[in-house]
Amino acid sequence: MKFLPILRPAAGLTSCRPSRHISHLLCLVAYLSCVTSLNIPPMTPNLRSAFSATRSSSVLGASQRAVTFDRLLLNIGEDFNPDTGTFRCRLPGAYYFAFTVGKFPKKILSVMLVKNGLEVQAMAYDGYRNHGRKMQSQNIMISLKPMDTVYLLLQENQDYAIYSNIGPYITFSGYLVYPDSTSSVGYLNNHLSPPDLHLPGCPPFTDTQYDWKRRRRIGEEPRSAFSVARTTSVLGESKGRREREALTFDVEYVNIGGHFNKTSGHFTCYFPGAYYFAFTVGKHPRRAVSVKLMTGRGEVRAMVFDEDLSRRREMQSQSLMLSLKRGDSVWLYSQQDDGFAVYSNQGRYTTFSGFLVYPDFHQYMGMDRTFP
Prior knowledge:
By secondary structure, the protein is mainly beta. It has helices at 18-37, 181-188, 361-365; strands at residues 50-55, 59-60, 71-76, 80-81, 86-88, 93-103, 109-115, 119-126, 135-144, 149-154, 161-163, 170-179, 210-211, 216-217, 225-230, 234-235, 251-256, 260-261, 266-268, 273-283, 289-295, 299-306, 314-324, 329-334, 341-342, 350-359.
């Protein structure tokens, strides 16, 4: 058997250090592979998650906690389990959830949308125990991380129930509106160092298609979304009040782009396009409710109204799409006269959400792209 001769350095030459050369070679390979591949955005089919399920039978409060479903209409990504009623996040990002539940005759309706088994995000409620059947709806957008769970929770008490039949009255839907591009880029770039954070022996990251300060890809499709809630009621105080004040909010679930100001209650359009808006408000006992979705200086686009002055608490929902230009504002106005009110508490009866569905690229391409 012959062995290869061991090559020794000639006199006067410094021997190479394999570990150092290998380290530099690995860094170079990582650098070149990332420069050539990271300019390609991730495949959109892998960034999809959506479900819609229904239930065709009633649920009594003492029988179970989580609302389960017997018909699955859609389950892109297989992230929803109808047998447990649980959605488990696979892709981090901003998700929109909507549910409708039927009120059982002579029972109280109280269903909460819960995150990770503990955090109540929003609820649907009707405390009027009459013979009639009716329905209540709620919707919000929340930010989720991988393995976060979301499901509908029914009160474990015989006084509570939700109604359905083959109609069905009970539905639950959700979908990923905006995947978290920050986390995906961070994962793909884990071999390179961002600017001002150079790792020893590795070249700095110089992808011209990624803006590290704004944590987004240059040329990435514009994103704008918000979802907020109130935890306190608003009571009308005076008659003949002419100044219209926007309904404000104290809980912020999502505010992608920072285009909603919860202190002023105004959403200001930055990216022109078609937007979807939805809101739900609680009715205060012994008060009427009148809430309008407004644009600009007070143009009424949609509203909810209930003039029943009974003691019961219930909810009203509304939704629509609007075409907006940059600088347009959208807000909710609650009638401020005596006898009107909006009800909410820690259960978050009152919510307001909106997001960009289709950007108007004709206007977007010609506008100043400087972020606010």
